[in-house]
Amino acid sequence: MSNLADSSRPTRPAIAWIGLGIMGSPMSENLIKAGYSVTGFTLEQDKLDRLSAAGGTAAKSIAEAVKDADIIVTMVPASPQVEAIAYGPDGILENARSGALIVDMSSITPQTSVDLAKAAKEKGLRVLDAPVSGGEAGAIEAVLSIMVGGDQADFDEAKPLFDALGKTIVLCGPHGSGQTVKAANQLIVAVNIQACAEAVVFLEKSGVDLTAALDVLNGGLAGSTVLTRKKDNFLNRDFKPGFRIDLHHKDMGIVTDAARNVGAALPVGAVVAQLVASLRAQGDGGLDHSALLRSVERLSGAEL
Q1: Residue 174 has pLDDT above 90, yes or no
Q2: CA 155 centroid distance within chain
Q3: 283 DSSP assignment
Q4: For 237, what's the count of Cα atoms within 13 Å in the CB-facing half-sphere?
Q5: Residue 297 and residue 194 in contact, taking contact as beta carbons nearer than 8 Å
Q6: How far apart are CA 244 and CA 210, in angstroms?
Q7: Could you give the CA distance from residue 83 to residue 90 in angstroms, rounded to a whole number?
Q8: Please, which residues bridge with residue 57 across strands?
Q9: What secondary structure letter does DSSP report for 284?
Q10: Residue 237 CB neighbours (<10 A)
Q11: CA quadruple 292, 297, 303, 304: dihedral, nearest 10
Q12: What is the DSSP code (8-state) at residue 291?
């Protein structure tokens, strides 16, 4: 009887996690809290130490991290980094066991995701693209939105893992679809932050109580998750990165390029993409994307 009970008890898949940055560290820790065994690899020793302290296992290489994993999660900055960790003799595709599921949660070009899925299939591996929205706070609180591209069966297999990381989890279509939706997400977020930043400068120059104004605005149709999450950044001029301008610049390049390829016009998005690029050129690339406020302040005569 006990043997039967033991054999019927569900076992959680072994997880490899590649990339332990602002998002990856808290996300991997949430999997550990949910009872998963997580073996991680990243380039910074202090991030590996953090994983070990949280109850995970630090690996010395990608190959070591992925060799026994059922699910391999990747969370790195952009397409070149995904390609660097996936391909080559030391990469995921050459060292993962046949049948493993790769879940790439990075924000990259849709074509990179399509190409990775094709290359992985030739190695007997499966892939989901599963970029996220919600920033550092969403990662810590496990309330991310996760937009997924790939096959239904693979999505169903990964769903319990996603449930430990986020709240809104949707299969959006075939490979690359998750990245396309994420690109649209980044377009909306950037335009929203820009609008909030312009409102902040307008309100301050008009002598209005900014805290009161933002509270009442956020209670009406002008309210948004962006304003809720970034209100204190604006009020305190606190631009410690939750999501860096450098990365939003990369994402605006993805969405403007993808839109051009499908024949979609992004007139406001193109302007905001240029404002993000300008902010980066002025040396603010390492700041949080709420620092778009600094660009509006400069345009409005402030010397920063």
Answers
A1: yes
A2: 18
A3: I
A4: 7
A5: no
A6: 25
A7: 12
A8: 39
A9: I
A10: 12
A11: -30
A12: G
- DSSP H helices, the chain, are 2-8, 24-33, 45-53, 62-66, 79-86, 92-95, 110-122, 135-141, 152-163, 177-205, 210-218, 225-236, 245-262, 267-279, 292-299
Taking every pair of C-alpha atoms in the chain, what is the biggest distance, in angstroms? 77
**Active-site residue, selected from the candidate residues 182, 230, 231, 250:** 182
What is the DSSP code (8-state) at residue 79? H
Per-residue pLDDT band for 77 (boundaries 50, 70, 90) equals: very high
**Beta-strand pair 166-173/144-149:** parallel
Q: Is 47 a catalytic residue?
A: no
Residues whose CB is less than 8 angstroms from the CB of residue 193 and which lie 6 or more positions away in sequence, other chains included: 226, 230, 289, 290, 292
Contact 290, 239 (CB under 8 A): yes
Q: Quick one: tokens of 47?
A: 């991030």
pTM score: 0.91
- pLDDT tens track for 190-241: 999 999 999 999 999 999 999 999 999 999 999 999 999 999 999 999 999 9
Please tell me the distance from the alpha carbon of residue 169 to that of residue 142, in angstroms, as a whole number: 12
- Size of the chain, expressed as the number of residues it contains: 304
**How buried is residue 123: exposed, middle or buried, by Cβ count under 10 Å (0-12/13-18/19+)?**
middle
**Rounded Cα gap, residues 292 and 197, in angstroms:** 7
C-alpha span between 140 and 270 (Å, rounded): 31
